Structure prediction request, 774 residues.
Amino acid sequence: MGRRAAIVGAGHTRFGVLDAGPRELLRSAADQAFASVDRGLDRGAVGEAFLATLGFGGWQIGNVSALLAEETGIVGIPTTRVENACASGGFALRAAVRSIESGAVDVALVVGLEKMTDVGNARRRYWLGVSGDTEWERAAGLTFAGVYGLIASRYLAEHRIGPEALAEVAVKNHANGALNPNAHFQKEVTREAVLRAPRVADPLGLYDCCPVSDGAAALLLVRAESARRFTDTPVYVEGVGAGSDRLAVQERPELTSFAASRRAADEAFRSAGCERTEVSFLEVHDCFTIAELVAIEDLGFAGPGEAASLTLEGTTRRTGRLPVNPDGGLKAKGHPIGATGVSQIYEVFLQLRRAAGARQVPSAERALVHNVGGAGATAAVTICAAG
Amino acid sequence: MGRRAAIVGAGHTRFGVLDAGPRELLRSAADQAFASVDRGLDRGAVGEAFLATLGFGGWQIGNVSALLAEETGIVGIPTTRVENACASGGFALRAAVRSIESGAVDVALVVGLEKMTDVGNARRRYWLGVSGDTEWERAAGLTFAGVYGLIASRYLAEHRIGPEALAEVAVKNHANGALNPNAHFQKEVTREAVLRAPRVADPLGLYDCCPVSDGAAALLLVRAESARRFTDTPVYVEGVGAGSDRLAVQERPELTSFAASRRAADEAFRSAGCERTEVSFLEVHDCFTIAELVAIEDLGFAGPGEAASLTLEGTTRRTGRLPVNPDGGLKAKGHPIGATGVSQIYEVFLQLRRAAGARQVPSAERALVHNVGGAGATAAVTICAAG
Prediction:
């Protein structure tokens, strides 16, 4: 297997409606990441830092990566903002892996951040809107919930099934989120409650949609060969893959599959040199419940329509054969845009070190992480394994 | 010397007030880059693409990198938006070099783009404002011209000199721009006209400030060892360096030097394994005339205050001992934010291939490119050499 880089530290703030501002959030996640390195990691050793964010709270957008160095006390090092909407975190991690693999730096810091809840509704809608297609979709009044509602309608119609599998995604992810002290929502929901909830974009109801959250997550990456200087339990990045697609959903040949996800997964598996059967669990981008079903299929873990039955059978539960989103997913853990892709890897870091506490996935050896930008115009996939 | 990657193709739109929208601009620059490869380069060979942009014309901001694949006909490949304000282009190039050096991809496309002139003044001011420090500087009403005006005042006072050297930067860069068919301003100005122009932020007048421009530039990078499959005259990226600093100028120990530029230059020279005496000419980030003087000093080509005398002596003219900004610089060529860093490398590509026509720098063998984000909170330096 490839060992492209190793994760030796990780930090995560609470996700939710938080009082803290963006500077404080990124500092908090990064401080935790440094503190988590078993044998310590001197901040002066960090060669480069990447910040994944879409809006940073609105008051500072351009050149904001410099604040990452400022707030973490490593002023001077190269900092880069990577922005691919909701996939910013996955692409920032990928950029950090490239820097380490190229031999340019020995240690890289990746922080994902979003502060969404004290931003005015108009500006927040603007941010989110401009991450979908603006020329056609936004002009036609189509929001992200609307796009995913269309995808869900089509999925249910193509496979001649009812909304129960969608609801079961929410039930499972809320159950997982209830065990995650960082999750935005830490309470279980019943299938009936999901199915009866107010409609947002039919067939998607309130519990089919992820919340608007604040939060940050941070990772410390080092060269694979030096990982054991920092910890006895590094987590290795074995493979990275990514893809893109036409921004406007109407320009694509199909609604119920994201070509960017398929390409990203294939590239990640080639890069890692492993097979799907060797993956213990998945972290997928479930911004809406339908997105989890589509992701499981696009990533090659189920055929078209089969993710619905896998979900209904309990295969994707934390204790199932293929756990999906043991941290609660975007659905229950929350979705602070730029933080999400980094937070997914944070979960993998805990799980593969057997440090996920009450929500530990049994026999977690290798994980696949899937992070999507917008409605599939960009996607990043990362494969990680225990040391 | 290091040969980290090779540039084998480059494209550039006209800079200025253009009718074309952002999609058309990026397509035009990329198409030119592909067409410029001497022995051709199949678009299918591109493994990854990077888009440098701050605002993309305002109507599409999040996830905009996907449009780069869409508009260039290479839908599916990984695309990443890199944003470090005015230094976005330099950092995007750096990310592409890392990807190639890591062995992950054989060919990378880098496009820088900004469409500024049909954006409302309020939104444009917002974009630019949020690239400086928002908490203190913007709240105090300090614009970028204001920040650079403070730097210029301090520089003139510290070195007990008048504004003539500032004016001479404008005179030189306008003279160079007059020979550049892509420049926003293609006319010469006199020192008297510069000194008599309306004040913008004393001691900076109208001709001390770069314009607000539309435009795009594109580069095609390949592995250094495969460069000659594409052309007999590749340009090699020998070294890359970058740095960061506190975002708010008030938080820094000095006004007349950018620590980020100094660090970026030192790293680039270490990375390239060459000396300053081996550099034939510079492309520096002259968003204001004072910025060119500060850059020449920060990059190690003059001691404190000496850039003023070098400039007055004509050393930095196109035919001088150390030509600076032979393309006219941001000052005359224009400054479409995300495009600038890529455009600087485009100029180096032409010059090092002896293809710069009327503005050719005599004996151009190696060039240093300096790209700054905001008022020095981020900076990237690239060193390139002829094959």
